[in-house]
Write a structure and sequence with these properties.
The chain is α/β, with parallel strands linked by helices and 427 residues long. The protein contains eight helices and 18 strands. The chain folds into three domains: 159 residues, Spo0b-associated Gtp-binding Protein, Chain: A (Distorted Sandwich), CATH 2.70.210; 170 residues, Rossmann fold (3-Layer(aba) Sandwich), CATH 3.40.50; 67 residues, 2-Layer Sandwich (GMP Synthetase, Chain A, domain 3). Bound molecules: guanosine-5'-triphosphate and magnesium ion.
């Protein structure tokens, strides 16, 4: 993973495929000049589907290409042939991707390889004229148009699925640690903020247990107020089972006990739930004499607080094995949080069927999925089709609703962007 190209947010526009139109056709048989209606239905438009792909690590693709439209459904044909459905458009995303709409409502989250979520439904195909044949209307010469596909802007947000999150000051040795215990190869250097984006590494223990570590950019005092790289990367450990604080025992700038307090404070300011998570502390760089000399004191300090403390050297590997086994135990006990339980997660109310709004003197706008779809699927040039639309409107009590809202004969009614004159039957 190219470090600088780690992208964990994207905004995309998605549009399901348009449904295919229903067909108007009549059977043609020998000696029968005008047979019964046999126009087939249109096919459904393709859906847009996100799918979990464990080989993906970032949302980079969606940073470059933002507009997605699925294939439309094919039109119906004569002899009752139904149009083919449009192909779904599949968007692979890394595991841990959360999909939100513009109101911040969570549409879903991808946690497993192969898991699918439809984020924009294709429109239904329109019925062919055969569908409208009744005993009183034996030769309908109209059909429905296909429905438009669902369209919307969505926000993709990645929260990597890690079992353990590494939290520490810059230069504490977090990246050195992850490169020692996994195949991850992040940049390591003796200046602060070497790591600019999270890195994941998988640890495999000799006993077969395995877990995923997330190395994060360094946190400094004031990070939650935006200092340094800030705390926005902390969201990547928001569902880690446990947190490993990495302290630099050789630091000449701050004592490890204080460093730990500062880190806890910054985490608390970012999201106090992070403090409820189980955690342990690694005192790094004990290969350096100044660090080793502090070891006893720091050990006693954390022990007195009941905190698990491990003196290690990420460079030589001293103490690392023991730490890894303890992490594995911890991960087993408290599995990774797999469901995003966010306060923003609200169940959307079922949309109202018909909503009438006066937009100007003598102008009313009508919205609601059923009314809009009925309008959009009608061929307004075809008189029979318009009569059929009026039947649909009366089933939805549209006329009454408009009269209640104050509409009068001759007023303009706008439905799905199309203007009608209001000509009520009543009064
Ligand atoms: N002697 C010694 N040096 C270490 C040890 N671990 C890390 N270092 C050195 O400390 C410096 C910083 O190491 P990094 O792993 O880049 O630190 P980091 O915590 O990832 O730093 P940021 O990415 O900037 O937050 C490097 O020069 C490492 O070689 C250790 O156990 N012993
Ligand atoms: Mg680093």
């Amino acid at each position: 993973m190219g470090e600088a190209k780690f992208i964990d947010e994207a905004r995309i526009y998605v549009e399901g495929g348009h449904g295919g139109n229903g067909c108007i056709s009549f059977r043609r048989e020998k000696y029968i000049p005008y047979g019964g209606p046999d126009g087939g239905d249109g096919g459904k438009g393709g859906d847009i589907v996100v799918v979990g792909d464990s080989s993906k690590r970032t949302l980079l693709n969606y940073h470059f290409k933002r507009h997605y439209k699925a294939q439309r459904g094919y039109h119906g044909q004569g002899r009752l042939r139904k149009g083919k459905d449009g192909k779904d458009l599949v968007l692979p995303v890394p595991l841990g991707t959360i999909i939100k709409d513009d109101k911040g409502c969570i549409i879903g989250e991808i946690l497993k390889h192969g898991q699918k979520i439809v984020i924009a439904h294709g429109g239904k195909g329109g019925h062919g004229n055969a569908y409208f044949a009744t005993s009183t209307r034996q030769a309908p010469s109209f059909s429905e148009k296909g429905e438009p596909g669902e369209k919307r802007w969505l926000n993709l947000e990645l929260r990597v699925l890690a079992d353990v999150g590494l939290v520490g000051f810059p230069n504490a040795g977090k990246s050195t640690f992850i490169s020692k215990v996994s195949k991850a190869r992040p940049k390591i250097a003796d200046y602060p903020f070497t790591t600019l984006t999270p890195n994941l590494g998988t640890v495999l223990l000799p006993d077969g247990r395995t877990f995923v570590i997330c190395d994060l950019p360094g946190i400094i005092e004031g990070a939650s107020k935006g200092k340094g790289l800030g705390t926005r990367f902390l969201r990547h450990i928001s569902r880690a089972a446990t947190i490993l604080y990495v302290l630099d025992l050789a630091s000449s700038e701050i004592e490890p006990e204080n460093a730990f307090e500062v880190l806890r404070k910054e985490l608390e300011n970012y999201d106090s739930n992070l403090l409820k998570r189980t955690f342990m502390v690694a005192g790094n760089k004990i290969d350096i004499p100044e660090a080793r000399s502090k070891k006893g004191r720091i050990e006693r300090h954390f022990k007195s607080l009941g905190i698990k403390f491990f003196p290690i050297s990420a460079v030589t590997g001293e103490g690392v094995q023991e730490l890894l086994y303890t992490i594995a135990d911890e991960v087993e006990k408290s599995p990774r949080e797999i469901v995003a339980c966010e306060p923003e997660l609200i169940v959307l109310k079922k949309p109202e069927k018909v909503v009438v709004k006066k937009v100007a003197e003598g102008v009313y706008k009508v919205s609601g999925k059923a009314v809009e779809m009925a309008t959009l699927t009608t061929d307004l040039e075809n008189e029979e089709a318009v009569l059929h639309l009026q039947e649909k409107f009366s089933k939805l009590n549209l006329e009454e609703r408009l009269l209640q809202a104050g509409a009068k004969r001759g007023d303009i009614i706008i439905i799905a962007g199309i203007e009608f004159d209001f000509e009520p039957d009543i009064r």
